Structure formats: C-alpha cells, structure tokens
Amino acid sequence: MFPEITRPSPNFTATPAHERLGVCFHHSALDFDATVEHILNADSLVSYHWLIAADGTRCQLVADEQIAWHAGASEWLGRTRCNDFLLGVAFAGNTYHAPLTTAQVASALEWLAPRWAQHGWTTAHMTDHRQITPRRKDDLAPAEWTRLLAAIVKKFEAG
C-alpha cells in the first residue's frame, strides 16, 4: 500500500457534487513538492483531486465529491466542462522528459481499484488531458498514456 497524505487545495467547487464518471490523467510538469505548493496557492486557480509522486505517494488535494479545476476548457464524449465529471489525477513530473515510474503506475492502479468497482468504470471511462483538450494541452506523453492504459486493461479488464 502506498502512503496517502492530504493537503486541501482552496481551488475547487463544492456544489454541484462531482459526477465521477471517469478519470482524466495528467502530468504536473513540476516535481511533487512544487506541484503541491502551486495547487495550495489560491491564485493558481488550478487543482487535481490526486497527485502521485515518483515513489508512489499519493496526495489528495480535492475530495472526490468536489470539482477540482484540472481540465479547463475541455470536451470528452460529446460533453464540455470535464471538471464536472472526470476526476483529475496527476503524476508529478513531465512524461516527455521522464517516463512514469513503476511506483507511479502501481499507485494509480491501487487508487483506481476501489473506485473502479464502485463506479462501474471501464477503460472507456479513462482518458488523459491531451485527449480532452486537443491543441491546448499535451499530457500525458502518448507512449506513457499507452503504457498506463495497458496496465489498467491488464489489471481490470484482462479477465
């Protein structure tokens, strides 16, 4: 089990309740500590629900029931305002400069497990920032998204 810490961000919307229809994965570009510091700054106007460090430590920044400000202007599966229905999970670092660590992938799978069953998710409920904001954001690096998605399929859908 990977350790979890909580650092509540001021950057969220409490109502309406988050729909939790799936997950949008990001990379933070900054290291873990710098990302947490940035998200705790009310002036940043950005947040994730969860941030995963290189060693697999998870930091909850916004409760799953609340709307984190991670997607910006976005569209997925014919809907806009992805913040309202996709949980935002970020990996600390930049996946174009360094691949996800084995611990980051394992921690993401561990985090997904209880939510997968609870919400009835499939891989059709998983995406990354690049796919919901084309031409505006480029995370995750395509190879790392493919790697993460393959790990999700193996863990939850490979029978």
Question: What would you note in describing this structure?
Answer:
This protein is of the alpha/beta class. The chain has four helices and ten strands; from the N terminus they run βββαββββββαβαα. The strands form three sheets. Strands 1-5-4-9-3-10 form a six-stranded mixed sheet, sandwiched between helices. A two-stranded antiparallel ribbon has the order 2-6. A hairpin with a 5-residue loop joins β4 and β5 (58-60). α2 (102-119) packs across α4 (142-157). The longest helix has 18 residues, at 102-119. The chain is globular and about 45 Å long. The model has no long low-confidence stretch (mean pLDDT 96).
**Relative helix content:** 25-40%
How much is the radius of gyration in Å? 14 Å
Mean pLDDT comes to 96
**Percentage of β-strand residues:** 15-25%
By secondary-structure content and strand pairing, the structural class works out as alpha/beta
| Secondary structure tally: strands | 10
Q: Measure the end-to-end span.
A: 23 Å
For the largest sheet, list the strands in their spatial order: 1-5-4-9-3-10
CATH hierarchy: architecture = 3-Layer(aba) Sandwich
Q: Mind telling me the CATH class?
A: Alpha Beta
> How would the global form be characterised?
globular
Could you give the order of the helices and strands?
Answer: EEEHEEEEEEHEHH
Please, how many domains?
1
Going by CATH, the homologous superfamily would be Peptidoglycan recognition protein-like
**How would a crystallographer describe the biggest sheet?**
6 strands, mixed
**What do we call the CATH topology?**
Lysozyme-like
